[in-house]
Sequence to fold (231 residues):
Amino acid sequence: MLEILRQGLAAQGLDATKAETLEAFARAVLEKNKVMNLTAITEDADFARLHLLDSAALLTMADFGGKRVVDVGTGAGFPGVPLRILCPDARVTLLDSTGKRIDFLRETCDALGLTDVDCVHERAEAFAAQQRERFDCAVSRAVAGMSVLCELCLPLVKVGGQFLAMKSARSDEELEGAMDAIQTLGGRLADVVDYPIPTAGVTHRVMIIDKVERTPKQYPRQFGKIKKSPL
Ligand code: SAM
Fold:
C-alpha cells in the first residue's frame, strides 16, 4: 500500500512524505471494519487508490490551507481525513449522522495525532442551524444525488466559499437536474473537473460550486421534504 500511495501522491504533485500517515489511517479503518460496517473496499491496493488517492485528488483542485472545511457525510472519513493529513493547516470538521462512525473517527484522529479535527455527530440539515454559512468550503462524496446534496451542503458555506462534490464521471444528467437547486441555494457552477486516479484506470469527477449569494432562510428544509421534493 505504501508504494502505491507514494507513487500516486507524487503523480498528483502532493506531499508523498504523508504516505505513512495515510497508511496508518487505512489500517485503522480496515481493522475497525472487521466489527463495524465502514467500507466495502478491503483490498490494500484498491483502498489506497479508491479511497485515499481519490480523496487526495481534491487538493489538486482547491487550496484548503488555513480554511474551515466541512466534510458532509464523511462515513469512515472520506475525503476529510486524507485531506487533513495532506493539508495540516486545514481546519476540518467531519460530519456524519451515524454516531458510531463519528466515535471511531474521533478515536482514530486522536491516535494519529490529528487533534484539531472536529468530529460531529449530527445531520447536515440540522447542523446548518448552528453553523450556517460558517465554512470556507464544504466537500462531500457518495452521500446523495446532487440536488439533495446541494441543500445539505451549500447552507454551510459562506459567500465567497466553495462546495466540492465528488461524483462519478457519468453524472451529466445529475448535474443538469441540479442546476436550479444550485442557483436557488446561492451557488454558481464554477467548474467540472474529471480526474484520473493514479494507476487505478478510473476517472472520477468533482463539481465545483462557488457560493455567490446567501442561501435563503427557508433552506435547508427537513430531510423528509428535501427527499420528497428535491429543488
Ligand atoms: N463520504 C464517505 C465515503 O465517500 O466513503 C461515506 C459515504 S456513505 C455511502 C454516506 C454517509 O453519509 C453515511 O455515513 C451516512 O451516515 C451519511 N449521511 C447520510 N445523510 C446524511 C445527512 N443528512 N447528514 C449527515 N450525514 C449523512
User: Anything to note?
Assistant: Strands lie at 68-72, 91-96, 118-121, 135-141, 157-168, 187-197, 202-211. The first strand starts at residue 68 and ends at 72.
